[in-house]
Amino acid sequence: DAGVTQSPTHLIKTRGQQVTLRCSPKSGHDTVSWYQQALGQGPQFIFQYYEEEERQRGNFPDRFSGHQFPNYSSELNVNALLLGDSALYLCASSFGTGNYGYTFGSGTRLTVV
Amino acid sequence: EDKVVQSPLSLVVHEGDTVTLNCSYEVTNFRSLLWYKQEKKAPTFLFMLTSSGIEKKSGRLSSILDKKELFSILNITATQTGDSAVYLCAVWGEINAGNMLTFGGGTRLMVKP
Q: Which of A18, A102, A103, B64 counts the highest number of beta carbons within 10 A?
């Protein structure tokens, strides 16, 4: 039973560029939440997708956007990258908008230079 | 705004020592508190606490919640080098009919042989 899969595992981008991160939820899960974890800090909630809609959003600018596909997988897009966007981006999947079975992926390490 | 504070920020102990990690919180519509262990990337689930005063145990790890004083502790007895990790505390609140995890900044534990 595959867990939460994120890709890529690492990537390096230049300031001003755009990036897309991907997440496949655990089998049976239909909700995807995204978190940003800067070095030495705890994860911060970016947004949550359920039924292909953004259901809730944390305190992140509009440069951060997302999408959920009919197969429940999700993408996180960040435009106009800043050095401060360098972080580990974690995806978590669950069933429904509650916390049932909440499971984290291994993350994507983004470095902006 | 929901808030979770963990202490200490970091801790260095020797194998066999006992450690206590602290987590205090302020959250609207508290539902539960969770502890995670993060070694490299994906946080791995340790405990979920919903009721006050009931200790949860798993081997050498245990945790308890005090809903009146708004804090939780995680105890690790007879520490081993494999316990070296960042320990994250998170709370489930409910905002605007959605839900999100609010994390503390983590406690970095290093266990020396």
A: A102
